[in-house]
Specification:
The complex is a heterodimer of chains A (372) and B (672). Chain A has helices at 2-18, 24-44, 49-70, 74-98, 118-134, 143-161, 166-182, 187-207, 210-220, 230-243, 254-257, 269-302, 306-330, 350-366, and strands spanning 100-102, 105-110, 115-116. Chain A has 372 residues and is mainly α. Chain A has one domain (22-366). In chain A, strand 2 and strand 3 (115-116) form a beta hairpin. Chain A is globular. By secondary structure, chain B is α+β, with helices and mostly antiparallel strands. Chain B has two domains: 62-94 and 114-249, Penicillin-binding protein 2a (Domain 2); 253-555 and 570-621, Beta-lactamase, CATH 3.40.710.10. Chain B has 24 helices and 23 strands. In chain B, helix 11 packs antiparallel against helix 24. The longest helix of chain B has 36 residues, at 11-46. Chain B is elongated and about 105 Å long. Chain B starts with a helix and ends in a 56-residue tail after the last helix. Classes of the chains: A mainly alpha (372), B alpha+beta (672).
Amino acid sequence: MIEVLQLRLQRFLRRVMTRPRIDLPLAFGLLLLGICGLMTLYSASGGSVAMITSQAARFVMGAVLLLLISRIPPAVLRGWTPWLYAGSIALLLVVATLGQVRSGSKRWLDLGVLSFQPSELLKLTVPMMVAWYLHPRQLPPSWKDIIAVGILIAIPAGLIAEQPDLGTALLVSAAGAFALFLSGMAWWKIGSLLAAVGGMIPVAWHFMREYQRNRVRTLLDPESDPLGNGWHIIQSQIAVGSGGTFGKGWQHGTQSRLDFLPEHTTDFIFAVFSEEFGLIGVIGIMALYAFIIGRCLWIAMEARDTYSRLLAGAIGMSFFVYVFVNGGMVAGMLPVVGVPMPLVSYGGTSAVSLLTGFGVLMSIYANRKMHD
Amino acid sequence: MALRRRSIKDTRGESALFRVRALAGFVLILLGLSVLVSRYVYLQVHRHDEFALRSENNRVKPRAIPPARGLIFDRNGVLLADNVPAFRLEVVPEQVPDMKTMLSAIRDVVPLDDDDIDAFKKQLRQNRRFDSVPLKLHLTEDEIARFAINRWRFPGLDVVPYLTRRYPYGSLFAHVVGYVGRIDADDMNRLDADRYKGTSHVGRSGLERSYEDMLHGEPGYELVEVNADGRVQRVLETHPPTPGKNLYLGIDVRVQKAANDAFDGRPGSAVAIDPRNGQVLAMVSVPSFDPNLFVNGISRADYATYTAAEDKPLLNRALKSAYPPGSTVKPFLALGGLKYGIRRPEDTVLSTGEFCIPGQQRCYRDDVRGGNGTVNMVRAIQLSTNTYFYKLALDMGIDRLASWMGSLGFGKKTGIDLLGEAEGILPSREWKATRSKYGWFPGETVIAGIGQGYWNVTSLQLAHATATFAGHGTPYEPRLVMATAAVKERPVPLANPPSGPSVIRKPSDWNVVNQGMEAVIYGAGGTAREAGVFNGFPYVVAGKSGTAERFSRRTNDYDTNKNTAYLATRHRAWFIAYTPTEAPRIAVVAMLESGAWGAADAGPIVRKVMEAWLAAQGGAVPAQNTPEKGTVTVPNAPEEFEDTPVATPADMPAGLPSDSSSTAAPEDGGNP
């Protein structure tokens, strides 16, 4: 029995070493990031063993999913795409009718054992669907195709924004938009579309909920309301700023330990990181994020067909949106939106869904172009 | 079509285009990250000094002060739920050098059982290492003293004062007042986190739960200065909390105790209601439990004892146990017959001992072989003549029967101010359609006429219906709490307007049924007169017994075994009554889960409740004009009223009514 297992292990290792099905540099980058995340969480949670174990469990679950999905060839994924897209939209509709309300928004589906946010699935199925749609078509896309893609993105994004979960809606739309961008959409078309979106801002303001408007207002002038909405922004900036160049050292950030920093294990964990590791740490982790995104784009360039290319590129680029929106929010540059720092923030299903996305990338890598 | 498209797709050109776009995208991303980093440079380098200073000064933080929970009193101001100071042992995990050694060493000083350790370890995992975790609640004086001596051995451990809940009457009010329990993770999701900051307990059952919102109060806060370790250096500013409101029940402790004692431990329940306003005057469920055990976490052994007990002490029988009401529904049915004009009081029915639906084989029996002969309505109630009511039910039809009984509150919640009330079952076509594919059979209407078959009612429902009748048809939702009082203010009565118009239109209808129910007590052959239940009671009582069979009859033979113990295993005994009949002031229902006969077994319980109530009124029913109909009387506040928001002295021995608070001691036995 054991010998059989040993034999299998050896065979597996040999195969992995000779013709790896996963991209080792990317896997290494993710591992490094995960370790940084757990270290920061240990400090931010005040050494809570329960939180560390549950976060590590999520990482393990995500890694297993990553390995499983990397085994599915992109061509198969492409065949499934319309069904996956339709299925995830159906789940969104289920949530809209039966979902659980937690802290004022309806985004959770309770499956008894675990509850999850179906909106997380859309972060993957939307770029898949856009890539699927553009795959057989003449590129660069025509206005007609652009409008079709716009509808494919707008349906789920609208449903998610309605929950309300603006952060996820933003991420989902960005993922789809990046696929469109990578497909070679003409610059002037991009420009006119962005101008149109800019023109919509006053309209959007009209449709925003009061709490969302308040978040924007307090961003513009946080000191006006230091004990209410401005509290997050001010305390987070104090944490970041007081970290200085070299930081206060691991487990020595006073802002989170003394409870001044709210949400210091989830959305604002990067403030703890900045406080404890300083500017050096920030630059280091940003370089790590840049490396991961660059590696994703490299895999995309090496991909065999349009579908794989667009999907890989879109996943990689949407990773940037997480980092930028969360990092900007912590630094008081962007309004408070529920976007986690990828693989660093505690909880939610985001770590699992992110790693699933990287599973798709690994699959694309495994089926890359053969160089002559 | 797709094929044609693909054929003109320029794969190589597309790949090149993608390469350009990917590079452009990456450049944009690097640009974006640079913007982000430059913002961090701005905050962490250019404004570092400013933020470092603000972080240094970030030493003042708000800290919640939990409010004192409202107290609960009986109608005369006797304390039923109290806040008493207690001490608990707390651990700051960060400051303990070795948790294992500490835990084994502390056991010699303060005895801990496995439950304490388990709860502690569970919370330890959830908490942050510098937040204190309670290790043991409710330390005894001895334990505090021993810990004080050994304190130097245990860095990171401290004895902290807190307020805990105490129920001086223990099990007597357990099913009414309920209890509080420690807030757990489930509660945290349910409760408003801001209102419960610093609060350790929340109402779990009974009034503690249904009036949680009022009892809790509003937390205050203080601004404290902390040092670099987060320890409080001094308090800068205090905004005191608003204590929760005190509750005053309609129940009199003495009546409650008399009702409880009347059961003598036999499982059952009793409810007394003031027909004029719906105030509950007594509500007991026997057996009961000690709510004090639940406050600081009940031990597994104690809990297992309660859940394993065959007579289910944790079950509130008055509220949640529904049983067939038997003959107690007969007066209500008679009233329906008058209302629908199906019967005039003088109409007679011949009872021969057996009633057969015309054209059917199956027959239904009277209690007595040979029947009661020719009876009119009053006599049918007095003798509990089944045949009369079989026929009445059949003539009325199930739809009118269900609609009439429904208007008296059967088959639905009474609306009492407690959670978890059972609805019982009111037999009707609609109810049956939800349970069975068969339609309604006439035979089911017949047995519904004597409160058997599908019927299920709770003691509370029956008391509510009896009170509604006694109050000449005006329904009131039962209310346990009659008044509330904010801190240092006089109690304010809670309004309880009638829940609908009177269900009795003609006073003569009421008089006929009342006459029948008086005859039950005083008439020759009346079921309660036979048992001599109300002999010598100074006021006129009207009532009705009910003896519901727990099993269906299998043979056609009369059961000749008259052994009481044998019958008790087969019957549930009910008795409903109100007094005085000229202007009813109290309606009482008693139910024994295993009673041989309604009148002989449940009747005396009703009498004892009425006697205790009368004694509490000073031995005589007050003149009718003093308290207006529908208004609530508020007791004179107790002497210690001025300082009620916090703990009052624990001068009352647990489980016994304090003599100081009783103006008149209940007379045992009453008139012979």
